[in-house]
């Protein structure tokens, strides 16, 4: 017993340096894990694509080490239609009876674990996630390889933190370090993997505390992976730089197109998720049904099968893509591939099969970039347009928009091509896509910023919060956003802009507190306002949110705000509402308390 205790003490996490050392170790494991997964997936694809479907999806130059599809036989419509359904059925059995966390994209579940589950991932998840993704992509499903590799690394990090008895903060950091390792290895993107890991958890922020561990892990995983599979970037690209500034308006057009199709992708993906969650079928059959529809799409457009990275490499090499089924090519064929890739990816991942969304996002964006470049060649031959820069810029910008990750999108593409020459147009197009896409995200579990994430409760010392009483800092309370329960919802919507509030305290007779009405959760669309005018009162849609009194603590108030997802809290005494406190009021009170303690200690 004593020796075990001593061993655990020696290896326990005792500060940032310990985190850095373990990040290196996690990166090493993530690199080996990514290599093993890629080898197994490629072996599966060589059999299913080459021998059964008769379709060669191509391969990025950095993955040539794994490529084992010889000369594909004639196209087999029967296998193309039904093989994705067979793969979906096998995945459905795994996710329904063995590991439910293996379904879907993987990245969203990692984000959820970071914010709401203290970075905990069950040890069996990486294995089943890898197996389910091999079955999904190997059978022709439309998805990416990054989901399982990220979860393999994240699982290593979370399990190691659990073994060491680390706290929630260290576990989250090691989980992100593992995620970065998986991404850095599979995409051959040492910096891009790290930036993606720290940026993907928020919509408008980054997890800066984990940046150094993520870089250490990602670089280590990259070196481990390439030491076995060979060095070099994922895509082989000829040298290029933006010397003709007449191309910039075309890049701006590409940014607008990435936003439009990105918005469409997010809506379609979430719609498919919701539809399949309500579909009256046993859960294990849902991925098979989604796979069958994907197979029908692939019968017309086999180009939607797999990750799509092979098509990107072929276009970078200067090959003119031609439809496998119809024998036509040109810009509108590329646009069609992008649109059908949206549907095939949504049906594959949204129905419950396993595959990442990052890879297909790159593929869709690449096709959009190639569409703009090809159209520009036709319309403006005097500009001497080269297609592949538009393709690569579209890749990063489309992902940046749908994932709310502008820095990650730019750096990831630069890492994957081994050059930063395209950074200027990437910056232009990514910023346009992200600014326009500020209300959408492919990841439903993303939190807006650190201050709204449960993972950062430690930013405010909870002991201090629990010791500060409301009455210690507040003698009067705000009353602007307080309304009667008899007020109609349409009238509240009209008054809200003037009050500059989205959540309102609801009062009954004698200022009795009734609850909170949130216009973020309840709103009548403009086209229905006239028909529903004065029919719905605020009292009919009130949310039952507990109140506090002046003798309660700031910790209690903050807990209610977070638990019920509201931005203000009623202060009630003797059955009468005295006013309310907002998030910012609690933060200001906490900061003042800390400053007072610091002054006294000087």
Automatic annotation (TrEMBL):
The chain crosses the membrane at residues 20-41, 78-99, 174-198, 210-236, 248-269, 289-312, 324-343, 355-376, 383-402, 422-442. It is found in: Membrane. GO terms for molecular function: chloride channel activity. Its main location: membrane. InterPro entries: CBS_dom, CBS_dom_sf, Cl-channel_core, ClC, ClC-type_chloride_channel. Keywords: CBS domain, Chloride, Chloride channel, Ion channel, Ion transport, Membrane, Transmembrane, Transmembrane helix, Transport. Pfam families: CBS, Voltage_CLC. It comes from the Bacteria. GO terms for cellular component: chloride channel complex. PANTHER family: CHLORIDE CHANNEL PROTEIN CLC-E. This is Chloride channel protein.
